Amino acid sequence: MTQVGLVGVGRIGAFHAATLHALPGVEVVVADVQAGRAEALAASLGADWAPDVGALLDRRPAALVVATPTGSHAELIDRGVAAGIPVFCEKPAADTSARTLEIVNSVDKHGGRVQIGFQRRFDAGYAAARAEVGRGALGRVHTLRGQTCDPTPPPAAYIATSGGVFKDCSIHDFDAIRWVTGREVVSVFATGSARGEPFFAASGDVDTAAAVLRLDDDALATVTATRYHGAGYAVTLEVQGTHGTVGAGYDGSLPLRPVGNPPRTGVCTWPEGPPHPSFMSRFHEAYVRELQAFVDYAEGRAENPCTVADALEALYIAEACDLSRAENRPVTLAEVRR
Ligand SMILES: NC(=O)c1ccc[n+]([C@@H]2O[C@H](COP(=O)([O-])OP(=O)(O)OC[C@H]3O[C@@H](n4cnc5c(N)ncnc54)[C@H](O)[C@@H]3O)[C@@H](O)[C@H]2O)c1
After folding, report:
1. Is the CB of 67 within 6 Å of ligand 1?
2. Which of 3, 90, 125, 327 is the least crowded, having the fewest Cβ atoms under 10 Å away?
3. Shortest CA distance to 200 belongs to which of 149, 230, 155?
4. Residue 284: CB within 6 Å of ligand 1?
5. pTM here?
6. CA of 67 to the centre of ligand 1 (A)
7. Among 68, 72, 116, 172, which residue has the most ligand 1 atoms within 8 Å of its CB, making it the best to mutate?
8. Which segments of the chain belong to CATH 3.30.360.10?
9. Residue 319 has what pLDDT?
10. For ligand 1, what atom is nearest to the CA of residue 75?
11. How far apart, in whole angstroms, are the C-alpha atoms of residue 263 and residue 251?
12. Ligand 1 site, residue 173, Cβ cutoff 6 A
């Protein structure tokens, strides 16, 4: 049995705990700063729990999963690395690029093993788009369009510590664009608006955002995000090239209703089923594959599929977008890179 310790049993942590508990050969032990939460989740799963992180690490689990709020990731990664335990940490690796760079250096120095949670790398559509680009099926890729739309905002307390829409939400699109194209972003122009709940503006955040990215081969990408997509949870990536175009995320539950189709081309009945209510249903299979990949990596059976260095690159893009939005001007990655 591989014993996996999991810290933070909130929205995503409880979901990951259930996923880990269901993986063959894995036994999960959960902990949370609110010990009662960990105890209750453990009871509902039939799993074990520890009263705090120290007690969890004292058990010397074979691997550690960090699903606490963003501000605590760096410290918990450090504790796992110092104890010689492979760590999976939810995105982003830390709340600033300065802190993420420290983790990159510490992981290098101590030979640590840390995987970051960008689950789109394990989504069938994103993986297929990457394969199409890789085999040249699209020709010269010139345009990408990524979007992340939440049906309703997360709680106000979450927004206050999330780091803002680019670090919290669009960072998935930034990682996906790098991963699918194999290219780096060289400059961004980003903007946003806050017309929903006042807690967005109070946190200096926006509820709707858009960014234009220029890649190092001069391909262009647009990334949009909103916390108010009442139609349902929507995450897609379109990749266009000189020979072809593909779209990831266009399943029967994508909440997009075509209108006004002329009879000549037929009426599209999509979406076929109820919309995805949240990231949990949309990415369920990707999360399972991601955590299985982490267990394989922790056990030395596979390579790291998403390093802290990858997380740092995505965070640089998010920080460039924050600066661009704040100063209403294009920003090069060189300006934020450390
Ligand atoms: N990959 C994804 O699709 C995805 C989706 C949602 C959230 N996330 C990320 O996961 C992280 C958690 O988000 P969430 O929405 O689950 O948050 P949440 O607020 O719902 O849950 C966080 C949990 O961690 C506990 N906690 C807080 N500080 C702690 C500490 N120092 N030690 C132990 N436990 C602690 C809290 O009591 C709570 O139970 C965030 O960094 C977020 O960016 C990723």
Report:
1. yes
2. 327
3. 155
4. no
5. 0.95
6. 5
7. 68
8. 121-279+314-336
9. 98
10. 31
11. 23
12. no
Q: In the structure encoding, which two tokens stand for residue 112, read together?
A: 């640590």
For residue 32 and ligand 1, the question of a CB distance below 6 A is answered with yes
Residue pair 86/113 in contact (Cβ under 8 Å)? The answer is yes
Question: What's the gap in Å between 72 CA and the centre of ligand 1?
Answer: 9
Closest CA to 46 of 68, 65, 20, 67: 20
119 Cβ closer than 6 Å to some ligand 1 atom? yes
Which atom number of ligand 1 is nearest to the Cα of residue 70? 41
pLDDT at 257: 85
CA dihedral 245, 249, 255, 259 (to 10 degrees): 10
Q: Select from 157, 152, 125 the least CA-distant residue to 278.
A: 152
Radius of gyration of the chain (CA): 20
Fold adopted by 121-279+314-336 = Dihydrodipicolinate Reductase; domain 2 (3.30.360)
Q: Where in the chain is the domain with CATH 3.40.50.720?
A: 2-119+287-305
The domain defined by 2-119+287-305 folds into: Rossmann fold (3.40.50)
**pLDDT at residue 267 in the model:** 64
d(CA 38, CA 17) in angstroms, rounded, equals 10
Closest-CA residue, ligand 1 atom 41, reads 70
